[in-house]
Known about the structure:
The structure is a homodimer of 132-residue chains.
Chain A: H1 3-10, H2 14-22, E1 29-30, E2 36-37, H3 42-54, H4 59-63, H5 66-71, H6 80-118, H7 121-125
Antiparallel strand pairs in A: 1-2
The structure holds a DNA duplex (30 and 30 nucleotides).
Amino acid sequence: xxxxxxxxxxxxxxxxxxxxxxxxxxxxxxxxxxxxxxxxxxxxxxxxxxxxxxxxxxxxxxxxxxxxxxxxxxxxxxxxxxxxxxxxxxxxxxxxxxxxxxxxxxxxxxxxxxxxxxxxxxxxxxxxxxxx
Amino acid sequence: xxxxxxxxxxxxxxxxxxxxxxxxxxxxxxxxxxxxxxxxxxxxxxxxxxxxxxxxxxxxxxxxxxxxxxxxxxxxxxxxxxxxxxxxxxxxxxxxxxxxxxxxxxxxxxxxxxxxxxxxxxxxxxxxxxxx
DNA sequence: ATAGACCCTGACACCAGTGTCAGGGTCAAC
DNA sequence: GTTGACCCTGACACTGGTGTCAGGGTCTAT
Lengths: 132, 132
């Protein structure tokens, strides 16, 4: 099948399919006219790529084990677990950081609300301007 | 003071100080030789900028109310609350997404571990398959 | 007067995948 | 034989703060 058809079948844009190819994730043969020709199996390959991208892996990381998981069960691909582990650590780090920011933000919001309850509307109205 | 001194006092790189200026966050005067000359108050300004950047605000967003919070209490600056609110929503969205990814990742890791425990290669227990 | 520390502007690189445009080729149907 | 759908490559933009380099000016102490 040609690239447009694969794009429709997978919901991935033509642009992205070409990008995946440039990253070594999928290698269609070329017809005499230069068009990419994909095997029907390419649909599964692209779905697999989508799955890993949704797990937060990069195309480069996926390239390291994609051909293994397409052939075998994931559990047989030694590269996968360490990658998952480090990715999980990274995500936990980000979660922690975001949570921290969220707490700070909520704290400041609560503090502003408290302060506004204490002050009269006219104090708010005459709040000054400008100045560096 | 000159830019290098301000950088040392605040722990912010010279590069970043120039960037903040380009974003309209701080406006040092210029000496005859073209050097930036910062008032001692600039230290506080930069600390304030750091604080807001750490809350996940962008320099553009900070530019919208920095004037005001430097002059008044934060609670008097009308621009701040809506910004905090939308930023909080955004962070909650990201937290949700990351949490989802984390769950999927953990699910797949558990599935791999299960499969490896039954590690007779021909034992095709269909325990964990395709988390999407 | 010269070394060395400090300052200036401008510009590219980075992350990473996707959109989009330009400029041009191929193919099938009518 | 022309129209229109589809394909090709190459390249820029975007997000946004920071590092870093190039190429050059200024200041101070020796």
